[in-house]
Amino acid sequence: MATNRRSGKSLVVPWISLLALGLIISAARAQDKPGWQMVWSDEFTDPVINASKWSFETGPANVNSELEYYSNSAKNAFVENGSLIIRSLKENVGGRNYTSSKMQTRMKGDWLYGRIEVKAKLPSGKGIWPAIWMMPTDNAYGGWPASGEMDIMELLGHQPAKVYATVHWSSGGNQQQGGSKTLASGTFADDFHTFAYEWEVGAQRWYIDDVLYFSTARGQPFDKRFYLILNVAVGGGWPGNPDATTVFPTDMSVDFVRVYKKGNGTGITTIATSASDFRISQNPFADQALVTNEGGESRVAVSDLSGRVLERRVLGAGETLAFGKDLPKGIYFFEMITGAQRRTAKLIKTR
Fold first, then answer.
1. How does strand 174-182 pair with strand 193-200?
2. What is the distance between the alpha carbons of residues 326 and 84, in angstroms, rounded to a whole number?
């Protein structure tokens, strides 16, 4: 957002990781794009919000003079007819006169570079402030804005035909650069539009319905992993506060969220996992899956489709298991046990 209101895993070689946590991409809808490989998506085909992909930030918003109480209530965030709905209501909760929801992928979907697409229909009305944006997972360069912020889309409800794109960083204080796009006719509340953000080394580009409308070239701090946020704020210094013309409830509808990595479209799709202490990645120089233990000491077993155990070992914190270089095409299974916690992953080697 324009002021301080805040404080997955990629395979490049030919593996498909279908993590056995109910995280399955809908093949009919979610597909690779030319030059890009999908690494994460939510098509909102499940009847409820997928807790392995999304978390909620809850409580009163204490930044930007906003007026909402962020809730995880099914009144404020739910799936309906294949879309995620984030609904703002005029109701008193926690000493605030409005409620809404703020959803994020932190530690469930965190990325360094890629293309993010969100197809959404946006709310309108004085004081309504929907946003699709990204914040740093690790704050490697310090608190906001030193570690950066990337705003894929912001809209002010009293300007329903105009959206903003912005990046924030620090240079002796908040610095920002951005652009905007106004529809030739109609508003963003009339229909769904796809908001896309391409983020590469030293380059950022913003699109609406695949039409480029703003670009910039920033390096640090946009060289660390970020996570995605979807929310609708109510009130604040930038949009102003609701007035008698503002109609509640007001909804942001999201048809899909898709994240891509650069690739030739013939290799791998992988999906983020809620088991954030294990990272599945690739050796870019060999047909290997790399399983890195980012938590405590764990037992790892690898088996084939018949159940035959191919490898069994203990992985200490920070250790990596390289797997699959000399194996034929096929389906393989990982079992990772840390204390009483058990996680599984299914990997498909495609060449």
1. unpaired
2. 43
Where does a domain end: 238, 262, 286? 262
Beta-carbon count within 10 A of 281 CB: 19
Beta bridge partners of 120: 193, 254
Q: Tell me the β-bridge partners of 90.
A: 98
Residue 327 is classified by DSSP as P
Distance of CA 170 to the CA centre of its chain: 23
Distance between CA atoms of residues 13 and 236, nearest Å = 46
Domain housing 316: 278-349
Which pLDDT score, from 0 to 100, does residue 351 have?
61
Per-residue pLDDT, 176:
95
Q: Are residues 302 and 235 in the same domain?
A: no
User: Do both 232 and 342 map to the same domain?
Assistant: no
Is 100 within 8 Å of 68 (Cβ atoms)? yes
Which pTM does this prediction carry?
0.71
Residue 3 has pLDDT above 60, yes or no: no
Q: How many CB atoms are closer than 10 A to CB 34?
A: 6
> What pLDDT is stored for residue 49 in this prediction?
97
Q: Please say if the pLDDT value at position 348 is more than 80.
A: no
**Residues 187 and 309 placed together within one structural domain of the fold:** no
Residues 51 and 171 in one domain: yes
Enumerate the active-site residues.
149, 154
Look at residue 2 and tell me if it is in a domain.
Answer: no
CA–CA distance, 196 with 189 (Å, rounded to integer): 18
Q: Which two tokens stand for residue 300?
A: 């790892």
